[in-house]
Write a structure and sequence with these properties.
This protein is mainly α. The chain contains four helices and no strands.
Length: 86
Amino acid sequence: MTADIFGWIYTIAFGVCYIPQIVKTWTTKKVDDVSIALFILSIVGYAAASVYVLSKVGLNIILLANYTFGGLCSLLMVLLYYRYKT
């Protein structure tokens, strides 16, 4: 039970770290200082981690929630990047 609490804290903290960049990009509509490679590699990493967890660990909601949320945030940032890239 205690491990699950730390797992959810980890998931929330790791996912929330993308939010400031997304909000800044959305409001300023500028992506000059964004490293798009970071977000593209994050998507690849989250997808690979999800496959690994499902095949080796099984259905682990905490890890899959983390990878899904992080992957979606990264995907949103990639979409914003290409939307506002000049």
